[in-house]
Batch of 3 targets.
Target 1
Amino acid sequence: MSDRYIPKIGDEGFEWRPEFYDIWFKRGKVIAETDKQIVFLKTNGEIGTVSKKCSFRPIPTKADVEREQLNKIINDNVSWVDVVNEIQKAGFTIPKKVKRSELNAFLDKWYGEWLDDNDMAADELCELLGDLVEDEAND
């Protein structure tokens, strides 16, 4: 079985490039596939196809792009001082941490009358956000 990414029906978008080509082309939602082709919906409503012989990848998220950029900075610089300087110049996204009490206040304000248990909803939301939730001594 191959580890090669092939877009599936329902994928909202993908990028593709022919073999030995450096430019990735963006395509729309996958609506069908055959043994040899990926069928997608163009932005103008027309239907297009791409050969499965091409290289494919999901449309990169901002985090994917930043990860590639960070790897390039680390690999292209000899000293850690240069690495740090390049990282500072690059302007990476640094996620803002939120406090659990802020999540509880938000849930109470907007969904308080519909939620049976704000604390349980806050727990699930905190789990979903993971490291973005800041620990509080009062909580």
Target 2
Amino acid sequence: MIANAQPNMEHDFMRPFLYQEQGVRAIEEFGGRTLVSYDMGLGKSAISLWYAQRNNKRPMIVTCPASVKYQWQVEAKKVVGWDAVVCEGMKPKNLPRANIYIINYEILYKWIEVLKKQARPTLVVLDECQYIMNPKAKRTKAVKQLCNGVKHVLCLSGTPMLNRPIELFPTIQILRPTLFRSRFKYAVEYCDAKKGPFGWDFNGASNLKKLNQVLSQSCMIRKRRDEVLRDLPQKIQQVVPVPMRADVAKDYRRAEKDFVGWLAERDTEAALKAARAVGLTKAGFLLRLAAKAKLKASVDWINDWLSSTNQKMIIFCIHTKMKEALVRRIKHELVVVVGPTGRKRQDVVDKFQNDPSCRAIITNIHAGGVGLNLTAASAEVFLELPWQPGALAQAEARAHRIGQTRSVNVYYLIARNTIEQRRCEIIQKKLKVIDAVLDGFDSGDLDVFDELMKEVKLGFTS
């Protein structure tokens, strides 16, 4: 299926801010092959559209997460007045003539032949380019095939690496294939490569200031929010420890002390698997137990906050049961973003943004952590956290972005004295690694899970 391009209509086209105009010129200086790593909310999509318009780079193909395909279509019309075709489904169709073709990463491999032969792009834009961090993934291979032979490629992301420098390599390889002679040499210099009993480990980090300098000189443009938007309200982050329900807390402590024995009483097969992978399984179960134990107190906190103000709130979670429990228990009108649902998703966002009676929006961190503009909110609440620090930073930027007129308070509702509390602390520390590569700051180790497991092993199983 191909969604029809939007009809022509009169528009007052957007004008770039000075820093956005500087971004367009920087892309031109890099020959149209650039990693645009501006902070979330600073207009990376608009910059790429202005670059395309000024240099007449059309047709262009935008590859992006499914959740923001229609947002790109709206943005193209609003920023430069170009119509765009949105490609959908796993069965490619003949393409109508258009300035822009928009497709999501998940279906790109099915459309490669049609796009290469019929669209014949002069520019490819890879939005949220961290989606291609795995060189073995089908989507990464498809992106490389799409970009092969295309002179101009823009990679957009506020967090082009979610955890570690090795994740940047596929993006660098597409933009500057001769910058590093091989993935191995890159890993040795910048990923603290170590050879272990099971092969090479590229999950570390080293020489990060040098990597930042190399990228800045060769292909990367970077702006932080505080550099360009002095008047943007300050984002205030706050961890809110909440109590656990007594009976569930007792169950949590039992699982914490003797996890396999606790699980064997409930699911023998799961207990056998847990014995073989106790670290990962234990962490997952303890985190879910902590979430369950704090649910009542968290809902009370949310209801109290909503009752004490007329402002709006974004609520982030991960698991379906948590989302369903919130929908049942929150006493104020709300909407829910379920996943990448195209126009229906935009309708939900529009209601939250424009309807004063709609006080909250609930979304999965992975479904709603990118592509949403939720500036009607002045508070963000995280009931569950992702493993990747970059994914957390993306989610936090849904309200703290251009158009926000108030301070944004970010609350982490964390079960006291649990694995969840320690993981929150580790994630906050690990966020610095993103600054290390993108902004040239110092950083320590990277892996959230490994560090947490060391503490779990020492503190929980002794």
Target 3
Amino acid sequence: MKRIRIILSVAILLGTLSGCGNQKATSNDGKTDNTTTVTESATDADTKDVSKTSDTIEKNTKDENKKNNNESKNIVESKDSTEKSSDSSKIKTSTSDNSVKEKVIDYIINGQVNKPDAQKLKWSKAFLNKVDIDAVYKQYTVDGGKADDIENFANYLTQNAPTLDDWQELFKKDLYDAYKEKVVKIEHLKDDSYQVYIEKDGSQVPYVVVSAQTGYFHG
């Protein structure tokens, strides 16, 4: 009877030890599973973080490229605007100069009707059309002349116009067109005034005095 009790005790002890072993194994398995799960979760989190960081970098790169493109576009547009503005300014200046040229020619030829003859500015049309009025006008404004004051500029032009290189040829044509006379000699008097001779009855005779500057001549 005592022997039977001992055997039962040993059996119970063995069963208990076996249960503990299984429980430990289960516990170990559980721990292993938990470790694996945590590792897998950490890996997934790292992958998501890397992906998120990559997306952020890509977005920042796109934003930077867009910003650079916009800046380049703004520079090009600014350059185009400046060039257009410059071109517009040139056109405006040219138009303004042409307008002044037309006005001063019209004033000298047609606009002095109320002035006494002695006070009129007198020019040859051929000389007036050929002289560089634009250049003289620019110098006129540099010298302090009032812009668009046509009468004042006309006086300035008459006093300061450069003498044309071919003024004698232009004058000879003017004289012939007016009187059908040919010039045989031109003699300098003073300043821009010249004595002009024609041939009459086989002799050279003084005929008119001409201004080399304006082309105007008188007997």
